[in-house]
Amino acid sequence: MAHAPRTTMWDRRLPMISGSLSAVAIAWFVLVFVYGPVGPALFGWLLSPVCLAVAAAAGWRTGTDPGVPEPARRFWRQLAIALGVLGASVVSQVVDAVNADLSMTTRVGLVTSVLHAVATAMVVWPMLRLPWGAPTRGQLIASGLDVAILVSGAAIFFWHFAAQLMFDAAHRTTVGAAVILTVSGLVALIAIAKMAVTASATLDARSLRMLRAAFLVGPVAAALTPLLAGKTYLDTSLVIMPIGSFLTVLAAARQAAAGAVSRPPARRRYSMLAYAVAAATNALLIVVLIQGRDGVLPIAVAAVVLTALVITRQLAAMRENEQLLDRLDATIIELALKEQRFRLLVQNTSDVITISRIDGTASYCSPAVERVLGSTPEDVLGTSFFDRVHPEDLDHIQQQLATITAEDGATITYQIRVAHADGTYRMLEITSANLLHEPSVHGIVSNSRDVTETVEAHERLSYEASHDVLTGLANRALFGDRVDAAVRRARAEQPISIVLVDLDDFKTVNDTLGHAVGDDLLVAVSERMLAAVRPTDTVARLGGDEFAILFEGLGGGDVDRVLERIADTLAMPVDIDGHLLTVRASFGVVDGRGGDDPGNMLRQADIAMYEAKERGEGGYQRYRPGSEARGAERHRITEALSAALERQEFLLHYQPVVSLPDGRLTGVEALVRWMHPKRGLLSPADFIPGAEMTGMIVPLGTWVLREACRQAAAWVTELGPEAPGTMAVNVSARQLQNTDFADEVAAALRDSGLEPRRLTIEITESTAIGGGTTHETLRALHAMGVRLSLDDFGTGASTLSLLANCPVDQIKLDRSFAPVPGPDAIAGAVLQLARAMGVEAVAEGVETSAQAEKLVDLGYVRAQGFHFARPMTAELITVGITEPASPLAAQR
Ligand code: C2E
Ligand code: CA
Ligand code: CA
């Protein structure tokens, strides 16, 4: 109920008035009883209606109190009206008394009797309407029997004492009034009995008890009527009304104070009353028998009937009790089983189950805590859970608990670190439920699971999935994510730069010094790069010797400066396993802006990187629009060349090298051709540059080497001593940079069975000066017995130191220096130089006999050129050797 009961003032004032009035009435009654009539007799009569009026007022107050629930309110309104009518009947009785000279033994008038009966009926009516409050049929029967017993007992007493007296003094009342009084008295009795056995859900229990007392005052006082024999100026009603009224006022006040009836009706305990009534009736029978009075029979019958009723009631109660007990037993067993089941569940689950108060103090803790946290439940009980929580997680858990304590029954799941007895912290996943409102729990129930391993494994997995294991740098996936995030985060004008870094010659380190050194070098490189960038920049290892850097809020010259710094630090020698290593890197840079497409940026960085790599020598390239086209071209060439290799569209032509002056074939040079399905036979100038650019020269060169060796060996087998003495193979710089090139040559020789001395590797001057690996490879080849020839001599950056350091066996004077008639300084000087260095000199591009003659004059003994023979197929070479007289051989 929303309204608060009106307990102020009224609670005290009306009961006080009523109490005072009834005190005065009792005092007056006692005084008159002891000393005889004192004062005006009307005084005693007037108190009753006043008391009833006060009681009616009190009842009405409660009946209209919005704090009192509706069925009770109606009850009190009805009772208030009834009390008003009762007051009127008393006033009428006073009028009767005044008419009879204020004698109490007056005749009760018909109006008074009718008013009295109506009032009684009105008082009784709400009582009878009170619900039985008996939940079962057995209890209903018991209640009915109780009513019957109480009414019968009271009736027999009433009959024996009051009614007999009344009828004895029949002259004092009319028969009609007597009948009305008797009937109304009986009905009142039923109502009182009903009330006595009712455990009402409508009225407040204490209020009901007081009403019962109020209504008992009547019969009890009436039973005292015989004491008043001879005292005509007194009547029991003179005290019945004030006392009854007072108790009614108290009941009304109580009901108003209680407001809603919230407690369930108490189990009634009035069966004792039934025994008492039966015992009293039997006692009355004995007294009447001893005294030998009249009217034994009705009392005897009543006693027997009452006793039978009590026994029946008792039997009914017993049966019901038995049934109840049976049900109770079953319920108890079931409860015990349930309880045991839950206890076993809680105690054996691997989760820790705790009940704690808001302050974290545990009031229950399941045994699993020993396994999870190393403490016994006893250690935990009474201590605060918060004491064990990791200090950094305290805020978190308190926040979590605050959210659930705000709402009854709310649950929440969270992860926090909790101290183990061994001093470590375990990660617990806790589900807490707010059962503070639940009387059986009255706390926060938490279910905790140790997820330390799971969380660690998860963290490890996600770290491994996003980081490079060797260097600890971000990996490709994480780098991509970072670029995405940076582009999304940055404003449109904010610069974002991506740099791809590729180490030059890293493979060499790996191949020559071993993977362990290679790994250490990568770690050193990653450390140096990290040290050169800002902490907010992301350095990633994309794989192998490829790195990437993401600069947020940095672009243009600022990035260039950082990259210069990186290049400088990389160039500083690092000692790894006793090797002093320096690193050169190529950088591909792309300058982007917030909102750019991350995929595009990465692609552009890749293109820039390729261009940088292509330029070699620690290249640095910023992406320029149009680079894609070059990239696409490179891609196209790569595809075409590898397809051609696959389809075996390459072939070798061989150009004889002859001796001077006789023009005898001493060897051949292998020159690659591409039999293009659409464009016909292509010369090296059409595809070698593309093969060099794309790196396809490496597999192509391998094929040339193996095919040339195979052909040379075949000629040896076929022609014996007539076979060309040497097979020259052109090798590009890219091939020589591969550390395993020497092995590859060895394998080609072994597989073909060609003697090493019959193989000549032709390299250009620029190739010969390129880097340490090339040099080592050349030495290895030389050691193997393979001849080395310096091609296009004179066009490149030839130096004497190169000739001195490079283990070459031959130089090929470039055809641009093929001598013209007349004095020729270069061809002669080169020959002098070759002689001085102890190497063979070959003149290339000899197209005319004049040139040939001049070379002979200069002292050349080897030459090559169209004048002697064009490059031709292996078959034609064979024919030229075996059939010197043939037309083809005449070309010489
Ligand atoms: P190169 O190594 O200097 O080879 C000689 C080139 O000069 C050949 O051209 C040959 O046909 C040409 N030649 C020979 N005698 C004369 C002459 O009297 N007058 C003129 N004008 N030219 C003459 P080719 O076959 O077109 O080869 C061109 C270049 O392609 C070669 O120059 C060589 O550097 C490269 N090359 C050819 N085959 C291969 C190969 O298998 N691997 C590699 N890496 N490069 C190759
Ligand atoms: Ca050559
Ligand atoms: Ca040449």
Protein topology:
Layout: H1 10-35, H2 42-63, H3 70-99, H4 110-129, H5 137-168, H6 175-197, H7 205-223, H8 237-258, H9 271-291, H10 296-348, E1 352-356, E2 362-365, H11 368-373, H12 377-380, H13 394-405, E3 411-419, E4 425-435, E5 443-450, H14 452-466, H15 476-489, E6 495-504, H16 506-513, H17 515-532, E7 538-543, E8 546-552, H18 556-571, E9 574-576, E10 579-581, E11 584-593, H19 598-615, E12 620-622, H20 627-646, E13 650-659, E14 665-676, E15 680-682, H21 684-694, H22 697-719, E16 726-730, H23 733-737, H24 741-752, E17 759-764, H25 765-769, H26 771-784, E18 787-793, H27 800-805, E19 810-813, H28 825-837, E20 840-843, H29 849-858, E21 862-863, H30 874-882
Parallel strand pairs: 11-12, 14-16, 16-17, 17-18, 18-19, 19-20, 20-21
Antiparallel strand pairs: 1-2, 1-5, 3-4, 4-5, 6-8, 6-11, 7-8, 9-10, 13-14, 13-21, 14-15
Helix pairs in contact: 1-2, 1-8, 2-3, 2-8, 3-4, 4-6, 5-6, 5-9, 5-10, 6-7, 7-8, 9-10, 16-17, 17-18, 20-21, 22-24, 24-26
Bound molecules: ligand C2E and calcium ion (2 copies).
